[in-house]
Task: structure prediction
Amino acid sequence: MIIRQVRKLQTSKKNSGIGAIKSNRIVLYAVVIPLAVFMILPLIYILNHAFKPTDELFAFPPRFLVQNPTFDNFKRLAQATVASDIPIGRYAFNSILVTAAVVLSTIVIASMSGFALSKMKFKGKEFLLNINNIALMFVPVAVIIPRFLVIQFSGIYNTVFAHILPLLAMPVGLFLIKQFIDQIPDALIEAATIDGASSFRVYTSVVIPLIKPALATVSILAFQQVWNNMESSNLFIDSENLRTLAFFMGTLTGNANIVAGQGIAAASAFIMFVPNIVLFVCMQSRVMNTMTQSGIK
Result:
């Protein structure tokens, strides 16, 4: 009799626990789904805006969704690129080259620096970490003049390095990777050291495999920073052959008339946005792991 009562009590507790979990999930979905819809609205707008005909681009009040989709904006963009003295392929090549160099270099520099600041002991470690944390407070506009002076005095003005070197310093990437490496147990690194692994071997064989989600997140941030960057082409480059695709798209929009310019701007914004969303979709799982992982079990 007592055993039956105990079993009934356990069953009731189990059912109540399942019911509580279901109710919590319903509340969570009720909050998250509207937020997700709200966050995806800009993506939907960019997609629809690129295919709007001229009358819908200038409609008042503005329409969120396209009514009569057309490829006229992309045709005007293609015509504008053909009329350029320098082919668009040159600008695209410059952007791809600069983006690849910046992303790869940023990953290597941030991961090595994060490993040193997290697991190594040396003088000035806290000072360097504080400098990086202070750098997080500065927006790019605040350092344009110092950056220009450094590029001018270093002799890389009007070279491809003027695109690359200013973007290698990424304080948020270093901070993110350093915090992620802090979660790696010291015992794991000590065991590798006892087995005879050098610091570089520990970095490549132990640390890198464990921080791949953080590296994916930093690569996305670095890609967005450099792919849409027009500052270097405007301030540090005089030769048209060295300028990037983002700058070229901006000049097409500015040189066109008001009516055609709106359509070209919509099409170019969509084209420049597509690589960002494709990269994020490909690395989405690793990015989510960076945000949710709290430690290594």
In short: The radius of gyration is 26 Å. The CA atoms of residues 217 and 287 lie 5 Å apart. The chain has two domains: 2-50, 87-292.
